[in-house]
C-alpha cells in the first residue's frame, strides 16, 4: 500500500485482513461523525469541555453504505503511514519553495 500511495495524485486501498481493516472502519466512522456535525472542523478554537458531538448509532453504521473513494484511500494511507506521508508533503513543500527562490536568481 505504501509504494502505491507514494505516487502523487493516486491513492489505493489494500486490505490484507489485519489491523488495516480496523483503520478503515475507524476512518469511515470518523467521516460519518464529521458529516453529522457540520462545521466541526472549521475552527479548532471552538473545541472545549462540554462540546456536544453527534455520533452515529450502531444501526446507522451497520445499515449505511460507505463509499471507498480517493479521499478515504488518501486518509487511510496518511493515518497508517503518518510520518512518511508528512515527510513526503514536507519535502514537496520545500521543493516548491526552492523552485520559487531559484526562479528569482
Count of individual beta strands:
0
Q: What is the terminal-to-terminal distance? A: 40 Å
Largest sheet: none
How many discrete structural domains? 1
Stretches where pLDDT is under 50 for at least 5 consecutive residues are none
- Compute the number of helices: 5
Kindly report the average pLDDT value: 79
> Can you give the helix content as a percent range?
55-70%
Secondary-structure element order, N to C: HHHHH
Radius of gyration: 18 Å
Structural notes for this entry:
The protein is an all-alpha fold and 105 residues long. The chain has one domain. The chain has five helices and no strands. It has helices at 2-6, 19-36, 58-63, 70-80, 82-103. Helix 4 (70-80) crosses helix 5. It is flat and about 60 Å long. The N and C termini lie far apart (40 Å). 6% of the residues are buried.
Please name the defining characteristics of this protein.
105 residues; mainly alpha; single chain; 5 helices
Quick description:
The protein has helices at residues 2-6, 19-36, 58-63, 70-80, 82-103. It is mainly α and 105 residues long.
Secondary-structure map:
Elements: H1 2-6, H2 19-36, H3 58-63, H4 70-80, H5 82-103
Helix pairs in contact: 2-4, 4-5
Amino acid at each position: 500500500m505504501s509504494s502505491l500511495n507514494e505516487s502523487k495524485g493516486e491513492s489505493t486501498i489494500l486490505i490484507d485482513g489485519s489491523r488495516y481493516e480496523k483503520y478503515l472502519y475507524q476512518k469511515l466512522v470518523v467521516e460519518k461523525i464529521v458529516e453529522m456535525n457540520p462545521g466541526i472542523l472549521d475552527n479548532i478554537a471552538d473545541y472545549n469541555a462540554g462540546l456536544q458531538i453527534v455520533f452515529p448509532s450502531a444501526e446507522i453504521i451497520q445499515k449505511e453504505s460507505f463509499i471507498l473513494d480517493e479521499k478515504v484511500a488518501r486518509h487511510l494511507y496518511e493515518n497508517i503511514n503518518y510520518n512518511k506521508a508528512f515527510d513526503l508533503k514536507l519535502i514537496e513543500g520545500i521543493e516548491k519553495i526552492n523552485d520559487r527562490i531559484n526562479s528569482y536568481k
